[in-house]
Amino acid sequence: MKITDAKFAGSCTRVSSKPKRRLPEFAFIGRSNVGKSSLINMLTGNSRLAMTSSTPGKTKLINHFLINDSWYLVDLPGYGYAKMSQKAREELRQIINDYILGSEELVCLFVLVDSRFDITRIDLDFIAGLGENGVPFSIIFTKCDKQSAAATAAQIEKDKAILLRDWEALPPMFASSSEKKSGRGEILDYIGTLLSDK
């Protein structure tokens, strides 16, 4: 699938306030500073679409981007940012859960994981919650250009083994690099396949 048009469609903190036009939604989430905004910009071919920052925790709203006038790419706030107050973390948790559990248009939630490190307990707990609530999801390993291909492959295999301690089968997984634009075709083709099934 090719993205020919991507534009901002609105921000909200509750499902009830998202864009009125109902279309399939593909949402992206991960721990703060996992490279979510850079990945979104790489996928859409628009370096200014999602706000990128070296400071984690900048995204505090649910941002909808209209893609090809036919579906939404949804940028969710990151989770697990320790430098926020307890109150702020709870507010973000409510925003995230309201969307994930309340959006009837959500087709797939892409959970981003840093390919350089062991998948964290925070990630595992979040993914477990998706399973418990029947939320369809996939995993994207980010920043795959930051180390050797062999090191990245070994880390991904290690993360798979960690996940298989709690899961009988693994969800679809993708390896990506926003710098090298790797994984772009595979992720977009997967979205295209899911759209064709709608």
Number of self-contained structural domains: 1
Identify the CATH architecture: 3-Layer(aba) Sandwich
Please provide the count of β strands. 7
Identify the strand order in the major beta sheet.
1-3-4-2-5-6-7
Low-confidence residue ranges: none
Return Rg in Å: 16 Å
State the CATH topology. Rossmann fold
Note the main sheet.
7 strands, mixed
Structural class: alpha/beta
Strand content: 15-25%
Query: How many helical elements?
Result: 5
Gross geometry: globular
The helicity comes to 25-40%
CATH level-four homologous superfamily name: P-loop containing nucleotide triphosphate hydrolases
Mean pLDDT: 92
CA distance, first residue to last residue:
15 Å
Q: What string gives the helices and strands in order? A: EEHEEHEHEHEH
* CATH classification class: Alpha Beta
List descriptors.
7-stranded mixed beta sheet; Rossmann fold; 198 residues; globular; 5 helices; alpha/beta
What does this structure look like?
With 198 residues, this protein is α/β, with parallel strands linked by helices. The chain has helices at 36-44, 86-102, 121-132, 149-163, 184-196, and strands at 6-12, 25-30, 62-67, 71-75, 106-114, 137-142, 173-175. It has a single domain, classed as 3-Layer(aba) Sandwich (Rossmann fold), CATH 3.40.50. It has a seven-stranded mixed β-sheet with strand order 1-3-4-2-5-6-7, sandwiched between helices. It is globular. The chain starts with 5 loop residues before the first strand and ends with a helix.
Summarize the structure.
The protein is α/β, with parallel strands linked by helices. It has five helices and seven strands, in the order E-E-H-E-E-H-E-H-E-H-E-H. It is globular and about 45 Å long.
